[in-house]
Amino acid sequence: MAMMKAARLHEIGGKFSIDEVEVPTPGKHDVLVKVEACGLIPNLRNVVTHFPAWYPFLPLPALPAIFGLDAAGTIAAVGEEVRSFKPGERVYVNPGIGCGECRHCKQGEPTRCDAYTFMGYFGFGAGSQTIFGKYPYAGYSAYTTAPAANLVRLPDTLGAAQAARFGYLGTAYSAIRKSGLRPGQDILILGATGTLGVGATLLALAFGASRVVVVARDAAALDRLVQLDPRRIVPIQLGDRAIAEQVRAHLPDGVDVMLDTLGAKAPAALSVDAMQAVARGGRIVQIGGVAGPIPIDPHPFMCAQLQYIGSLWFTPAEGDEMASMIAAGTVDLSILESRPYPLERLNEALEDIQTQANGFTNFHIVHQ
Prior knowledge:
The chain is an alpha/beta fold. The chain contains twelve helices and 18 strands. The protein has helices at residues 44-54, 103-106, 128-134, 160-163, 166-179, 195-206, 219-226, 243-250, 268-275, 298-304, 316-328, 346-356; strands spanning 3-9, 16-22, 30-39, 65-66, 71-78, 90-93, 96-97, 117-118, 143-147, 151-153, 186-190, 211-216, 233-237, 255-260, 278-286, 307-310, 337-342, 361-366. The strands form four sheets. Strands 3, 5, 6, 9, 10, 17 and 18 form a seven-stranded mixed β-sheet that branches. The chain has a six-stranded parallel β-sheet with strand order 13-12-11-14-15-16, with helices on both faces. It has a three-stranded antiparallel β-sheet with strand order 2-1-4, with no helix packed on it. Helix 5 (166-179) packs across helix 6. The longest helix is centred in the middle third of the chain and has 14 residues, at 166-179. The radius of gyration is 20 Å and the shape is globular.
């Protein structure tokens, strides 16, 4: 019986241990992927330590469990009913899985499914435990299984380590699509120097935005973003002056789109401030998960025809579109600085990412 290494969590708040487990066999509609790289999520330590208390409505897999979002590698085997993929192909595994039977899943919108679940992370409903049970392997194991429908083919120009960043990139990509951003329009990215924000900036440029207003606290990091396209990127540093005031000093009519990429620990007041920079008819898309109420007065929203939209993750089809943009050179990921860790150093990596993470560093686990 073939065995493999996997990092498993045995107790909430504990450290991951490197265990020997059986190499799985793919179901008839699934594939077996030999994982080469898997992304590191700065929030993972919070998830496996605090989520049961903070967000009891977001279930974790039954322990011991293998975690690891954003796996990329090579197909090792396919199920008997899989026709569109074959062994040897390089792929990214989109970890978001729905029940496959509800009307949202059948419409190709699994993110709207009540049972939507991230393999190797957490779920969104009571049906998540069934999905965890069906797909218990994830990116922090040498091999993982996944539905063939969740795979994204990788172009030759895209390495597994860069593909392990697809979760952040895809989240921003789907949000921009939902925003309806058109070439020539202006977009504001709040929290632009974070892991989510840097990807959003790259994609906003690729979507043809006339000006990309990048808002963050770190002046040096903002300068790095400006260098991507000094003609189109407008830096706004958080400080004494209100965000909206600074934005409208550059763009008096405001921006057409705002992406809020701030994390749960950021003050909601920053989001409220930035929203004042959105032009009439503009769209505000939330992808960072700011904790705390956002006060919205419906009457001004109605009169200005503003929209506030929540966007969760991205579909495999959107992943295909994004991979095509990278293959065409429309999106250049060379700005990302690789920071690999072997699986055996996962606990160390999770500590380092808490203090050393920035939007330009690509923390990931490599399987040797």
